[in-house]
Amino acid sequence: MGIISRGFGGRRRESIPGLPPGQYLTHDFPVLSAGPTPRVPLDRWHFTVTTETGEQRRWTWDEFSALPHDDVTVDIHCVTKWSKLGTTWRGVALDTLLDEVETAADFAMVHSFGGYTTNVPLEDLLDGKAWIVDSFDGEDLAPEHGGPARMLVPHLYFWKSAKWVDGLRLMHEDEPGFWEAAGYHMYGDPWLEQRYQGD
């Protein structure tokens, strides 16, 4: 499992409210990706929800942009041990996107342009816990941070907040995504330090 790193060593652990165990505070916004940065033209962007029965609901960029947007301020925590507190985003709640989707699924596989995937329990995407965001800190979301749109699931490690998101596949059974298949934790709670399988 050579692609798994146990994180950086030598950092002083900080005792700061809002900082999960094992994390250090950063004021910049590190860019970490599993591959090259996709450049997705807005006229080719789409977001598709596919239910466990194969039914689909799809939005173009213009349709997505017309949906009600929330302003969100949250802390984010990367599995590589950095945390950034009080980040500001704007996006569409998953509650809005899934409002008229009929499903009995318990899990979702998040899909991205470029082929990245990550799994999330469906309950972790609902009730104001997750968004598809297209703005960070008052500006359009930059490609290196997942623009034009990324998932934001701030209560889980940040690899669950997939960049360049293009859809969700709803599932009855949990399946590993890209990093989970490589040994990362299936859930990823930063407060429990669920970084890797067995944590």
Automatic annotation (TrEMBL):
Region (Disordered): 1-21
SUPFAM superfamilies: Oxidoreductase molybdopterin-binding domain
Domain Oxidoreductase molybdopterin-binding: 35-179
Protein name, per record: Molybdopterin-binding protein
Organism the protein comes from: Paractinoplanes rishiriensis
